[in-house]
Structures are given as structure tokens and as C-alpha cells.
Amino acid sequence: MLDVNEVPIKRSSDEPQRKESVLYENGLAFVVRDAYPVTPLHTLVIPKRHVSEVFDLSRPETNAYTELMKTAKLGIEQTDPRVTGFNVGLNNGVVAGQTVQHCHIHLIPRRGGDVDNPVGGILNVIPGKGCY
To answer: Which domains does the chain have, with CATH numbers?
Structure first.
């Protein structure tokens, strides 16, 4: 199990030490804001054990990150009541866009009007596939 400060997630140069920026934590995972947010309050849920792929997580680790994701969602909604939806996702493998080889789940808050046409959501990662 890695210490929170040892998890290899990208940080901006002005971000405090990881331990100081942890929003929520349990025995198997923790939550921080993304250093390069897609939307305000973009959050990462990160397992403490070093695995590159979500498929390598144990059931207890999966349960732990799911519980933290729910906690983070509530915290985001309390912080910004304009948030009325979320994109939840991860990049698993280099060809899927994973740039940090440590599993982490993105919780991206969405607000009405933040894009012209949200139809298809994450399906838009491949151009033309989001409109159905």
C-alpha cells in the first residue's frame, strides 16, 4: 500500500503536498481535486495500492473507491448547487488515453449549459459516436 504522497498522480507546480490536499480518505483510497480540471471541482478518486488498471483492483478496493465517489459527489453538490450531473470515468491503458499509470477515477461535475449539446456524454471521446 502506498502512502498518499507516494501515489504517482500529476500535480501542478503550486499544488500542496498530496496529504494536505486530501478531501476524503478511507483505508484503501482517497480523494483529491484534479490538478488540471475539465470543470470546476473536477475530482479524482485514487486507490492507495499501486495498480495501473481498474480491472486489477480487489472487490474491497472497488467498494472503497465507490463509497468515496458517493461522498465526493455529495460534497461537490453541497459546494455548488448548480451541479446537476456528473461524468464518471477512467482511462484504462495508453490507447485509451491513460497518461498516469496508476488507476484513478474522474468525477467531473456538470452544470446546465456548460456545453452546447451534452448528448452522448463520454461517447464523444471518439468523434461522431456521441450523436445517436
So the answer is: 4-112 (3.30.428.10)
Residue 104 a catalytic site member: yes
Rounded CA separation 101/18 (Å): 17
What tens-digit pLDDT sequence spans the chain (132 residues)? Answer: 556 555 555 554 454 445 568 999 999 999 999 989 999 999 999 999 999 999 999 999 999 999 999 999 999 999 999 999 999 999 999 998 889 899 999 999 999 999 888 888 887 777 776 676
| pTM for this model (two decimals) | 0.84
Give the active site residue among 42, 50, 102, 104.
104
Q: Are 65 and 51 in contact (CB under 8 A)?
A: no
Grid cell of 92 as nine digits? 484504462
